[in-house]
Amino acid sequence: MHSGTRALRELLEGPAHDVAPRLLGARLVGPLGAGRLIEVEAYEGAEDPGSHAWRGSTPRNQIMWGPPGHLYVYLCYGVHWLVNIVVAPEGVPGAVLVRGIELDDGRRVLGPGRVARALGMTGEHNGLVLGGAVDLEPADERRTGVLATGRIGLSRGGELAWRFLVDE
Question: Which domains are delineated in the chain?
Answer without folding.
Answer: 6-166 (3.10.300.10)
